[in-house]
Amino acid sequence: MKKTQFLTAFILSLWLCTCESLSTADIAKDPVISLNSVELTERAFTGVDGLCKITVENPYSAAIPFPHIEWELFIADAKLTTGAIESDASIKSKSAVIADVPFHVDYADLYAAIASVKDASKNGAKETGFKIVLTAAFNLPVLGEKKLPLEVEGTMPLLQAPRFSGMALSIGKIDFTGITLNCNVDVENPNAFEIPFPNIDWDYSVNNNSFVKGGVERAAPVAALSVSPVAIQVDVKYADLYDLFQSLLAAGEAEGVLTLVSDLAAIPAFAGETLTLNLAGKLPLPKPPSIRFTGITVRNVNIFEGLLAGNSKIDFTIGFEIENKNSFAINLDSLSYTLAVNGSEWMSGNAPNKTAINANQKAVIPINATINTLTLIREIGALVASRKANVPYVCEGGVTITAAAFPCLDPLVLPFSLTGVTRF
Predict the structure, then answer these.
(1) Are residues 145 and 202 in the same domain?
(2) CATH number of the domain where residue 84 is located
(3) What is the pTM assigned to this prediction?
(4) pLDDT tens, position by position, 345-387
(5) Residue ranges in 162-215 assigned as alpha helix (H)
(6) Which region holds residue 239: left if phi is over 0, alpha if psi is between -120 and 50, else beta?
(7) For residue 166, what are the CA distances in angstroms to 142, 231, 275?
(8) What residues contact 411, with CB distance under 8 A and at least 6 apart?
């Protein structure tokens, strides 16, 4: 007991010699550190900046040196980063100062170091807790070194990968030569800060074989908590498709898949990972109809009877055969033609009526025509007089085809040039 009293008296005497203004009550006091505030000062796709403010109080009657402060940042019980604060300043007696403890969390470092946190972000977690453990070491006169701990807790947002949403694949335009597919998709940013637009590569495959490829690049970032719409146009030319895949020549449709792939290289925390989307659908393969000229049939000859009156004529029936090679009905909306016989134009005209041609069926289109021109008398007379058996002809024109059961199919204007011989 006497030794303790002697030691206390000795320390007190040293203290009074060093700090004459202190009272005897100061020896029983300790400096105080406490949390003033903690906040996130900046959020970005690369990381989070934060600022922890702590209050350091000097309860003594004399100034004391600013403490040496060391701190460690923990996330999911794993130490992520450390830091220290040094200052030559002093804290006046009976006063307090606020010290800033800035910290930074790099998402790439965080996700590389703590797999569980990265997995949580992939599973939809939007934030995680963090803890800052501080130790303030005071070098006090007479009393020597004192270490005071402080723990600060808070939450910070997790970086979430962009994702595809609002997917739609539709036919933009289709005719008998090819099809244009329109893909509309949104790149969704679920984060409360903007992220770079991820470059997208796309590949359209037919029957599991790559057919046409492309890419989407955009300089503008995806704004926080928003979507960036993307439109992709895929042009399929049937001639090119059939050159590559002969097996499709007889097919009415094929399996088409549009694959979107983004490697997320623009976001360091997800470098090496990919975002993938497959949009599958049937690719229609409409076939152009075939046209065959079935010949000329003479129905009535009145050359000499109307010769003096100037209305000599020959009545014909011209036949066209249209074959529909598709699994849906088509309509022959118009047919125009010009017929040249034995090197001279005899007639031209149009089919009078529209004709429906059922799936995988043929239809014969008879067109009645009459030649009524004096300029052809010599040639007609020569043909009749010579009783020439085989007469060459050329029939040229075009047909317009629509598909009532396939409303998105553009009308087809199909020219034709048919040659052969006929008999009178």
Answers:
(1) no
(2) 2.60.40.1820
(3) 0.75
(4) 777 888 888 899 999 999 999 888 777 655 556 666 666 666 6
(5) none
(6) alpha
(7) 71, 12, 15
(8) 175, 333, 400, 401, 402
